[in-house]
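The records we work with from here on pair a chain with its fold. Taken together, the tokens spell out the fold as the letters spell out the chain. The record below shows the convention in full.
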Amino acid sequence: MELKKTLSFWDVFSIALGQVIGSGVLVLIGIGIGFTAYAVPFAIVLSAIFSIIKQLPVVFMGSAMPATGGLYVYCKRVLGPKIGFFFLALLLVTHILIALFALGFAEYAIALLPELNAKYVALGILVTFYLVNLFGIKQAAALQKIMILFLLCGLSSLIFFGILEVDYSNFTEQEKLFPQGWYGFALACVIMSFATGGAYYVSELGGEMKNPHHDLPRAIIFSTLIAAFFIATVSIVAVGILPVEQTANKSLAEVAREIMPPSLYTLFIVGAALFAFATSINSTFSWATKSVIIACEDGWLPKGLAKVNKRFNTPHILLTILVVVGSIPIIADKDMPYIIMLGGGLVFIYDIFPLLAAFCLADRLPEVFANARLKMSDTMLKVISVLGICILLVQASIAFSDIDSIGRIMILGYIILVIAYIYFRTKYNDQAFKNQKTL
């Protein structure tokens, strides 16, 4: 199945930036403040550095073999089909994180209109962007660019009104920087990794880019750097004006209401807050189905799931499944920190596999390695991959330390279920192949 190559650099860049900057600015800063108070800007900077290290091997592979379903394809081609599908199965379950974006949108909508019902608003925004993406990725990308413009303008207005009001002395006292010690700071770094990571998911769109070898690496790196700058600067305003008790585990609405004129506050909520979550939801719908399409073609999942609408060139069945998966945590009334840690623990596990693929790339696919548009020695790629794996292992252990036993059992049970599925699906596919040969 061949998807049309319609995406320019700015389309991909806007999707990547929207994926990164949404929840990171509007929800995760408040949660990070709850863990480490005035050290949250430092946690963001450190997380951004870690994110770039982890993404560099993926950027390299994207410049070497861009493809629809990029991350899955990288793992499949280098590590083998079974490990490739295991990676994809872990990736799929973390799509519950789209519920985080929808709940964040609802929280800010209620800041303007308190009579709204959070659950209905969250479900409503999911369905809205589900419908947008049903009409085609080009249309979704065009809308994304408009929303990104409003988002950056809104965040800039908050920075403009707040940056000179910050009491910078709070950032120099250790007891204020680390009220929960280094463990609290580490938890904040884990949380903020979701604020600075995620741009590499646009590698899933490699088959729909006009110039993927060139545009994919630039979109990932530039979007990560720009997002990190805005998130870190906004976090200084968020934690530096009001007492920590008023901002910890709270949205930016509290700070914006304090420092901005009423009319601009309303514009901030609409232009920055709501569009931030909208861009993240739209981005997830844009890329999340691509690997599944390829897995269906590979025989891991029923081929009928990957059916593409001929008029709009969109996988309508898979998009429908995604909106259902995203709705489950909302209907179940799970809070945002729980969703983050539960999904995050799996993110840090499955992110290891693309790094393993990058580590083995030159040995197993030497021609692909040699043809990469981004040049890097095999030794350097291996060193960066190992460093990224070490970072992920530490982050995973910290994330799982904050998940209850029920969450851990759910994750372990899912992993066992995936392994069993791979075993029986492989036997089924082998038998089907033998039967076909005998015919």
User: Anything to note?
Assistant: The chain has 20 helices and no strands.
